[in-house]
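WARN retry 2 of 3 for item q-0093 after timeout on previous attempt; input resubmitted unchanged.
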Amino acid sequence: MKKLLYIFFVILSGILFAQKNNTVKFAIYNNAVGTAAMFDLYKNNIEKVNVYKTQAGLPSHLKNFEYLAGNGLIEIKFKKNAGYPDSLSLEILNEQNKLPKDTPVFIDGYQFNDTTTLVYNEMIGNIELIDFNGQKNIHISTIRN
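OK item q-0093 returned
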């Protein structure tokens, strides 16, 4: 009975950690991923914002971020010579956590298989190493304002 209960809790925890956060709105600037809330800090430097409500409406240069567009996707354009946040690749985060560079990373439940993807440091609220389907993965929780 204890084994069954243990197996149930392991499966349940895997399911819960894999849940996508449907409230997060991802934003793209300069081919890097951030959150809409994160870019609020830079609103004086933003020149233009394009909001795409569906995956089908994404322009060709954003098709590689289609998996993030379930809630829509925002494209940011900064003014010329404006300051913008620092970014790093997910493969660097994997290396810093002693994981293979190509290990998928989860951000608010969204699985990023391409670890060359750049993300903005300012959106990272918490980083945890979690065992998911027998493999250790980084799970990032974003900062919500």
